[in-house]
């Protein structure tokens, strides 16, 4: 894992990608910091962090698009797959390298509240809680980008798909507001989601029995709930989308609260997509 980590980290700092990401990131933060905190003389640094979360999501593909896609395109992935390294070590090394680049920026912005404190009172709890939450948010986005990169040989495709997924996750709360709230629409929506999940399981495992079994059990459960207690479906789509929304999970940190459920949520998303990336590599290794 350490060899992969060093190789990937070196590639970021011996090419323009790492420097472009850091420069753009710091420039965006600098503009918001200058306008919101210095010009308007507001001591709440969490406002700046909250304002850049959407723009940050648009920068992440710069780092993640090449992580696995470049290996796939150059066929150097075959060297990785035939090496004694485990799939977990490969994925961990790549993720930790890109997360280190991201933490470089986090390390810099940790000084911003201290700079602000030289000119007045700054709520340090909410400022550093928001930075901590932002680091967790970044880990979740980076793991998602790594997974998407592992699915293709093209960096452009990886970047475009990552952009689409991130924009959807960022706008999830707004999308939830325009969706139908009646129980019939919720039942149909969750049936479609269940079918998609079963197709993904079949694609990953190539086992029709397991995929079909999960689908039938899930559909039976949905149907039973719809018949016995249909009121549970009222507004359920909105509740689920709001719960899944990565952006809305940042809110407690904005108010200086280290919310355990949000921390667990971000860590779960990160681990889930790293696990899925490991499964992709295992599948290619043995295919």
TrEMBL record:
It is found in: Cell membrane. The keyword Membrane applies. GO terms for molecular function: ABC-type transporter activity. It is a multi-pass membrane protein. Its main location: membrane. The chain crosses the membrane at residues 12-35, 47-65, 95-115, 127-149, 156-179, 185-202, 209-228, 253-278. One of its GO terms (cellular component) is plasma membrane. Keywords: Cell membrane, Membrane, Transmembrane, Transmembrane helix. Residues 43-217 form the ABC-2 type transporter transmembrane domain. Pfam families: ABC2_membrane_3 (PF12698). This is ABC transporter permease. It comes from Variimorphobacter saccharofermentans. The lineage of its organism: Bacteria, Bacillati, Bacillota, Clostridia, Lachnospirales.
């Amino acid at each position: 894992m350490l060899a992969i980590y060093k190789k990937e980290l070196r590639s970021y700092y011996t090419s323009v990608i790492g420097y472009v990401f850091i420069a753009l990131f710091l420039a965006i933060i600098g503009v918001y910091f200058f306008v919101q905190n210095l010009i308007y003389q507001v001591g709440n640094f969490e406002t700046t962090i909250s304002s850049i979360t959407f723009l940050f999501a648009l920068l992440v593909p710069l780092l993640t698009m090449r992580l696995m896609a470049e290996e796939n395109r150059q066929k150097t992935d075959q060297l990785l797959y035939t090496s004694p390294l485990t799939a977990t070590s490969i994925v961990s090394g790549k993720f930790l390298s890109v997360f280190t680049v991201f933490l470089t920026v986090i390390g810099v912005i940790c000084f911003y509240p201290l700079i602000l404190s030289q000119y007045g009172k700054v709520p340090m709890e909410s400022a550093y809680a928001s930075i901590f939450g932002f680091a967790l948010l970044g880990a979740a986005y980076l793991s998602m980008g790594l997974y998407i990169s592992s699915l293709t040989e093209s960096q452009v495709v990886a970047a475009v798909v990552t952009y689409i997924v991130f924009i959807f996750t960022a706008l999830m709360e707004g999308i939830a507001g325009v969706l139908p709230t009646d129980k019939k629409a919720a039942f149909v929506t969750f049936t479609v989601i269940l079918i998609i999940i079963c197709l993904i399981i079949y694609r990953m495992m190539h086992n029709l029995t397991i995929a079909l079994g999960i689908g039938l059990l899930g559909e039976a459960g949905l149907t039973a709930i719809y018949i016995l207690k249909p009121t549970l479906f009222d507004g359920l789509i909105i509740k689920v989308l709001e719960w899944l929304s990565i952006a809305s999970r940042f809110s407690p940190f904005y108010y200086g609260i280290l919310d355990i459920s949000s921390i667990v949520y971000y860590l779960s998303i990160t681990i889930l997509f790293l696990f899925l990336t490991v499964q992709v590599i295992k599948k290619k290794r043995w295919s």
